[in-house]
Amino acid sequence: MSITQLANIIFKKRQKEYERYLNQAETLQHNVMQHLISRARDTEYGRRHDFAAIKSYDDFARLLPVNTYEELKADIDRMRHGEADILWPGRVKWYAKSSGTTNDKSKFIPVSREGLDHIHYAGGADTVITYLRNNPKSRMLDGKGLVLGGSHAPNYNVAGSLVGDLSAILIENMNPLVNFVRAPKKEIALLSDFEEKRERIANATLKRNITNLSGVPSWMLSVLVRVLELSGKDSLEQVWPNLEVFFHGGIAFGPYRSQYEQLIRKPDMQYMETYNASEGFFGIQDDPADHSLLLMVDYDVLYEFIPLDKIDDPNAKAVPIEGIELGKNYAMLISTSCGLWRYMIGDTVMFTSRNPYKFIITGRTKYFINAFGEELIMDNAEKGLAYACRQTGAEVLEYTAAPVYMDEHAKCRHQWLIEFSKNPVSIEEFALILDKKLQELNSDYEAKRYHNVTLQHLEIVPARRGLFNDWLKSKGKLGGQHKIPRLSNSRKNIEEMLALNNK
Q: Which of left, alpha, beta for 107 (phi over 0: left; psi -120 to 50: alpha)?
């Protein structure tokens, strides 16, 4: 019996538990809330907000404030210095370093032992379980998984405490048995220099039986291109004939799909999306024919949602899962066994179904352009770019966009800086198609574009090859889980990139 066949037998129990997602999701979430409150009742935060008095969700929402990183930062910093029982029982040793806030270069998200086991590793296991359920003939576990991770470093001078990319924390704490089905070795996977890491991963995996890939699409693509260069082959299935699936997350896959399909020409190659972040693991694509993600309602994560159009209203009320409306954009709040309480993660989602609860990620609460009332979100941008690429044969590698509030001719527009891996024949035609598609997708954008009264036609500036990587490198963020900010009302990032583009 193969390893994959044995795993399928072991996973039967968990597969059966998924049936509870169909009609017991609200009960499961209530149980999660009770568990989290019970565990954290005697922490400093629990006493501060009277966790002992919480009997219902209404009590929970009344007694606990909605938090961003700024509100929890002081408590997290005390935890990083070794204090116990602050936001979660005991001492938390691991901190996932995430992209920063307005006031800080980086956020440090606490990752407790319970959070590792009951959120992050639970999500990884369920991803494999779901894939094997959908693909009973898979032999994925009979080979190696190429797992692309980040790096970590000491946390202050606290013994045994580290900060780093979440992926590095997961690799560092992984059950040693997992090493039999993953590559490369830990010492390579945790290298901090991405360029050195890419070279060593490519060499270390070139002759291995790689059956699956896991990582952020942009960084994995860079590794795979190097593997092909070293192999001298035309496509990856010539290097790894048993490759069958790419588990991806972190950023939208749409702009990268055509490039992966050029590298991997197997008609049965599969791509499976997950919603995993430094703050937790929240969703899995459980149906290959449906891009919506299944909300994982029985992990140590309690979910709440604030309507996106109320996000700036200090009196806006969040709702639990039973209060959501289908087809409506929400900012997501989470409370977790890592000590995040009613924490606004910064992502926006839209639910597509109940029983089970399924959703799509529509963008970021801060990654949108609303300089003139157009409310352009990342979901619009991704769909618009994908359509323009299909119509012109172009391929987009990276992009960012920001408003031009007024140029020397008193004209206002959106400016897109795009690095193409395959250029369109005409930049002007690509811009025209993108602009028209955005108007189809977004009525507010369409209204502001009407007769060019408020907004003029968007502008595309082609980026030189490697510009976005150079910008990340200049920020010390090359590799790991760092992402390009896609949309912004501020011109700070795009101006920095434009300056680099001219060098």
A: beta
Q: At what angle do helices 467-474 and 492-501 cross, to 10 degrees?
A: 120
Among 239, 274, 288, 255, smallest CA distance to 394 is for: 255
What is the pLDDT, as a whole number, of residue 102?
Answer: 43
**Is residue 476 within 8 Å of 147, Cβ to Cβ?**
no
Cα–Cα dist 100/107, whole Å = 5
Question: Do the beta carbons of residue 224 and residue 192 sit within 8 Å?
Answer: no
At CA 412, angle to CA 409 and CA 417, rounded to 5? 110
Number of CB atoms found within 10 A of residue 240's CB: 27
User: What would the two tokens of residue 400 be?
Assistant: 């960012």
Per-residue pLDDT, averaged over 450-457, amounts to 82
Radius of gyration of the chain (CA): 23
210, two tokens: 């790689």
CA distance 406 to 292: 39
Residue of 74, 79, 84, 118 whose CA lies nearest to 96 = 79
Q: How confident is the model over 313-354, as pLDDT tens digits?
A: 888 899 999 999 999 999 999 999 999 999 999 889 999 999
Long-range contacts of 287-293 (CB under 8 A, 24+ apart): 287/134, 288/134, 290/358, 291/360, 292/352, 292/353, 292/358, 292/359, 292/360, 293/358, 293/359, 293/360, 293/361
Q: Phi, psi (5° rounding) for residue 171?
A: -65, -40
Query: With 60 as the cut, is the pLDDT of residue 209 above it?
Result: yes
Work out the angle at residue 253's Cα, subtended by the Cα atoms of residues 369 and 200, and round it to the nearest 5 degrees.
Answer: 120
Any idea what the Cα angle at residue 431 is, between residues 429 and 432, rounded to 5°? Answer: 65
Confidence tier at 480 by pLDDT (50, 70, 90):
low
> Which DSSP letter does residue 67 get?
B
User: pLDDT tens, 411-422?
Assistant: 789 999 999 999
The whole model's pTM is what? 0.79
